[in-house]
Amino acid sequence: MSEPYKVTYATLTADNEDLHTAYEAGVDVAKSWLGAEISAPGDPDPGDPVDVVSPADPSVLVARVRAASPGAVEAAVEAARTAGRDWAATPWQDRLPVLRAVADLISERANELAALMTIEVGKNRLEALGDVEEAAVFFRYYCDQVEKNGGFEAKMEQLSDTETTRSVLRPHGVWGVISPFNFPMALAAGPAAAALVAGNSVVLKPSVQGTHVAWKLYETMLEAGLPEGLMQILPGGDDVGKALVANPGIDGLTFTGSYTGGRAVMDAFRGDYPRPVITEMGGKNPTIVTASADLDAAAKGITRSIAGASGQKCSACSRVYVDAAVHDELVQTLGKAVSEVVVGDPLERATFCGPVIDAEAVERFRSAVEHAREAGGTVVAGGEVLQGAEGHPGYFVQPTLISGLPTDDELFSTELFVPLAVVAPVDSLDEALERANDTVFGLTAGLFAGEQDEIDRFLAQIEAGVVYVNRPAGATTGAWPGVQPFGGWKGSGSSGKAGGGLHYVQLFMREQSQTVVTG
Ligand SMILES: NC(=O)c1ccc[n+]([C@@H]2O[C@H](COP(=O)([O-])OP(=O)(O)OC[C@H]3O[C@@H](n4cnc5c(N)ncnc54)[C@H](O)[C@@H]3O)[C@@H](O)[C@H]2O)c1
Ligand SMILES: N[C@@H](CCC=O)C(=O)O
Question: CB–CB of 180/130 below 8 Å?
Fold first, then answer.
């Protein structure tokens, strides 16, 4: 019997046979779920059916999704408000066991949920298992935070013997949670868990392209014993998200997705008084490599962050600034590593890079490569669209590295969300830091360097919320709750507090100062 395994995004190899056997059994279960019809529970007037297909093979129907009607949005918010009253009044000590049971049931079902995710959004098995386990860990971590902080209730100083004051963090009410396609379990579960742990109820609007996984999360939460009504789900696209944002019954909102979507949500979430809104948005994440760096480690970490989840992580590395003295050597080593990435059916054990999500993403890739060539760049590795080639019926592209472009080229500033990075030489760490920071984004960043002084300067000057030094498991990717709090600066995130960190649950609560005079 081999050792029990735990998959995180930093898991480098998976030679544990039990893991693969269990995942493959999960594939059989997930296949039996395919083709489900999904609409908001009790919706009398859902939208026309939209087919969600597998990006690895669009002939595979994953789910037929009918968007929530305006009436269903109203009903979900109202039901969440009603159920939320009892939940908010439930002592935190009684809320936590329910949410820990949710975490345990998610972990128990990890293999079938991960397999469904592989089919629905194209993640390889380790990435998908990591995504599911991260969802469970979010529930556990936020429960632990509430417990460690005594439910965020504290006695304050006294001005007289007859007066006592407590500071209490209390829930807001109903939270809207809008989630993206690329972490269809973890990034729906994370904000939902924090809201629920804090005593709120939740209305979830997942991405259309991750609807089936989000639906299974919803079902799992109910089956684990979450009180009826507390968690609502609204299938559908941006219009359903907009209807949720416009609903005056929403007391707080989290949005995880693109920069444009996040900015639109922040503008639209207005009402008679300000309500909390947390937006987690895109990235254009740089890695800096100095002349003192271990170039093999750099090539490994950067490759994982270019090609992991097919470049569809907000944390993906898409820019590399390397000291001119080692530029050619790094480009050669990195180019080789990128060209050796195994691209293919994400259900296969050997695959590292599955498909991108849809035809639009393939088109973004194709036009970026074309632009790079026209602008005088060199395609060092990859560059080809594989869609339609032997064994690649879905939206497959090659992980790609491009050199030789000027650093003001658009490929250094636009988030593409495909497995493509540009590399450029710099004359100094100062120049690298200036270029790395010269963006609206500030999500993640990596450094490979051998000198302590370089590490200190990077940590002091880089403008990003999640930073890594000398990390072959992922130059810019692979944060884990309780280990690396994950949140963006600047245009990558609005709250300045990070998911899976020490200060996140508190964002879902508001402080009440309670002074009581006796005698
Ligand atoms: N910072 C983070 O933690 C983080 C994590 C994951 C993904 N992302 C970012 O998300 C993007 C990829 O995900 P995506 O393509 O699903 O993003 P997206 O912005 O297209 O959609 C995200 C969600 O928002 C909804 N939505 C979009 N516009 C809306 C609007 N105006 N009002 C209400 N709802 C709206 C969508 O239906 C979906 O559920 C990338 O930019 C990536 O960097 C950021
Ligand atoms: N938390 C993930 C990224 C989530 C965004 O897509 C990471 O750290 O790589």
Answer: no
Q: What is the DSSP letter of 404?
A: S
Q: Is 353 a catalytic residue?
A: no
Phi, psi of 6 (to 5 degrees): -135, 120
pLDDT tens digits for 121-138?
A: 999 999 999 999 999 999
Task: Say whether 280 is catalytic.
Answer: yes
| Helix (H) / strand (E) containing 321 | strand 317-323
Q: Which residues contact 166 (CB under 8 A, 6 or more apart)?
A: 153, 154, 155, 156, 513, 514
Residues with CB under 6 A from ligand 1: 178-183, 187, 205-207, 237-238, 241-242, 245, 256-258, 261, 264-265, 280-283, 314, 415, 417, 443, 488, 492-493
Q: Which domains does the chain have, with CATH numbers?
A: 70-281+495-517 (3.40.605.10), 285-480 (3.40.309.10)
Structure token pair of residue 349: 């054990």
Shortest CA distance to 46 belongs to which of 209, 240, 181, 215? 240
Q: Are 447 and 454 in contact, with CB atoms under 8 Å apart?
A: yes
Ligand 2 contacts (CB < 6 A) are 9, 182-183, 313-315, 477-479, 486
- Tell me: the pLDDT tens digits for 67-98? 999 999 999 999 999 999 999 999 999 999 99
